[in-house]
Specification:
Blueprint lengths: L1 E5 L6 H10 L3 E5 L4 H8 L4 E3 L13 E4 L12 H24 L6 E7 L10 E2 L9 H14 L7 E7 L1 E3 L5 H10 L4 E3 L5 E2 L1 E3 H13 L5 E5 L5 E2 H11 L6 E3 L1 H8 L4 H4 L3 E2 L2 H5 L9 H9 L1
Parallel strand pairs: 1-2, 1-4, 2-3, 4-5, 5-7, 6-15, 7-12, 8-11, 9-14
Antiparallel strand pairs: 10-13
Helix pairs in contact: 3-4, 7-11
The protein binds NADP nicotinamide-adenine-dinucleotide phosphate.
């Protein structure tokens, strides 16, 4: 099986490449980074494309996994930043669609990224995959990214949309950023701490993504979140306990709004998401509870 992966050098992509190579797949990685660095991150056996022009109609790709995107929470959302966040996802997915359309051998399946930010800030409401999309910047970014990928359905490609929650990983991302302040006893609840955090252990994310890749019946949007989301206060207490440190501080909402501007709802709002379709398909989470996931990740 020949897979094309975008965003393969990232937190989710690297372990995914390792597992796919272990399964005997042939991998081609689309990356802006030098080939040697990509191979160091994704595996010595991967082919590297610097440009999608390398996907000529003769090249046979069996499946595409599309994870590329500028990190959403790295910098304040200026107009230029917003444009980069959209172009790195939506424009890139549209370019993939052009190549897919021209291909003589069409891939059977496209797994494409999205996020639970699509549902917006819902208070205590529970969102399954049937919930409507919200209308803030992050929600529109996800919805337009999904819409670009969904165009492949008209070409007979099975499209699966990975509505991902906050991934807890040893490789980086949220947990790596929070570990140091929490280890120093400086962990803090954000605002009133009542906003929901729909998290998932990276191993469960990968197992579910691979299941959706393999399952010819799987199509459309799936929430990739653990079955037991927590509030920010619960997450703060759980992480502090896992690190055997106190977390007595609270970052005031007004300060976060001042510092983060339009990005503040990412931290002060949240979604209480249920992975309804994964559960209905019989997927078993290895790490369904936050305490168990943190114990596993922080050892
Ligand atoms: N991790 C999470 O908690 C989470 C939650 C929800 C959604 N997601 C989404 O899932 C995807 C993968 O997540 P991740 O945590 O693995 O992301 P990540 O570690 O930030 O990696 C994303 C990858 O996207 C590529 N990329 C970045 N900017 C780009 C640009 N301007 N143009 C083209 N490619 C670009 C990079 O690949 P190269 O440098 O090799 O080009 C990078 O390795 C992301 O799109 C993310 O938004 C992640």
């Amino acid at each position: 099986m020949h897979l094309l992966i975008t965003g393969a050098t990232g937190t989710l992509g690297r372990p995914l490449c390792a597992e796919l190579l272990r399964r005997g797949a042939r991998l081609t990685v689309l990356s802006r980074q030098p080939a040697e660095r990509v191979r160091a991150r994704c595996g010595a056996a991967v082919d590297v494309w610097a440009d999608l022009a390398a996907w000529t109609p003769e090249v046979a790709i069996d499946a595409v996994i599309n994870l590329a995107g500028e990190p959403i929470a790295d910098r304040r959302w200026s107009a230029a930043r917003k444009a980069a966040l959209r172009a790195s996802r939506i424009a890139l997915t549209e370019q993939l669609l052009q190549r897919l359309t021209a291909a003589r051998h069409r891939p059977a399946v496209l797994l494409s990224g999205s996020a639970v930010g699509l549902y917006g800030d819902g208070g205590d409401r529970v969102f399954d995959e049937g919930a409507p999309q919200a209308d803030d910047f992050a929600a529109r970014l996800c919805a337009d990214w999904e819409a670009a990928a969904r165009q492949a359905e008209a070409l007979g490609v099975r499209v699966v949309l990975l509505r991902t929650g906050l991934v807890l990983s040893r490789e980086g991302g949220l947990l790596a950023r929070m570990k140091l302040p929490f280890s120093l006893g400086l962990g803090a609840r954000l605002g009133d701490g009542r906003q929901w955090m729909s998290w998932i252990h990276a191993d469960d994310w990968q197992a579910l993504a691979l299941r959706l890749l393999d399952d010819a019946q799987a199509r459309g949007a799936y929430n990739l979140t653990a079955p037991e989301p927590v509030t920010n206060a619960g997450f703060t207490a759980g992480l502090a306990a896992a690190l055997h440190r106190p977390a007595v501080f609270a970052a005031p909402a007004w300060g976060l709004k001042l510092a983060l501007g339009e990005m503040a709802p990412l931290l002060l709002g949240g979604q209480r998401v249920r992975p309804e379709r994964a559960l209905a398909a019989g997927f078993t989470f290895r790490h369904p509870t936050l305490d168990g996931a943190l114990r596993d990740l922080l050892g």
